[in-house]
Design goal:
Helix content: 40-55%
Structural class: mainly alpha
Order of helices and strands: EEEHHHHHHH
Number of helices: 7
Distance between the termini: 45 Å
Shape: globular
Length: 174
């Protein structure tokens, strides 16, 4: 037997991963708080960038060959979690990564590559951090593949030495 739904704004019946549970019904006091806005920018921007990794692309092929994505987890959720855990675990980390991107010699090329993939800037009016720059998601995907040890000419250029041509080649792999 199963049940789902709420009763009189008091309790909620639901199931998660096949396990039924009951919890108190809670209405957030402020669903658009500054802290939530900041986290949503980080999560939303990263998710949008990771969603551009094509199943048919070289990046996905190399990621699959490494066997690092846990069974039952999508490639996108793995990449989002990896990037947040390793590069964006705090607002300070986010600001550092954003400053590195905007200060990079190839900043315009990161922007152009992200635009070519259909990645856009992401912002929320109730957040305090700067908008998620479309180039940041692309650059963090590049950092991730380097940390995971992808091989091949497209994947081995140090991030500080990236040129427009290198970024174009990386975009083609996605």
């Amino acid at each position: 037997m199963s049940a789902s739904g709420k009763i009189a704004d008091a309790i909620v019946f639901a199931a998660w991963k096949g396990v039924a549970y009951v919890r108190q019904y809670v209405i957030p006091s402020n669903p658009q708080s500054v802290g939530q806005g900041d986290q949503r920018i980080i999560l939303g921007g990263t998710g949008r960038a990771c969603g551009k990794v094509s199943v048919a692309g070289g990046f996905n092929t190399k990621l699959s060959a490494l066997g690092v994505v846990p069974s039952g987890q999508s490639k996108q959720s793995y990449l989002v979690k990896y990037i947040i855990d390793h590069y964006l675990s705090s607002v300070t980390d986010y600001n550092t990564e954003l400053a590195e991107l905007t200060g990079a010699t190839a900043y315009t090329a990161w922007q152009t590559g992200a635009t070519a993939l259909g990645i856009s800037n992401f912002d929320l009016a109730y957040a305090t951090i700067s908008a998620y720059d479309r180039g940041l998601g692309l650059r963090l995907l590049y950092k991730t593949q380097q940390a995971l040890g992808f091989t091949g000419a497209v994947y081995t250029v140090t991030i500080s030495a990236m040129t427009g041509a290198d970024i174009d080649a990386f975009v083609a792999e996605l």
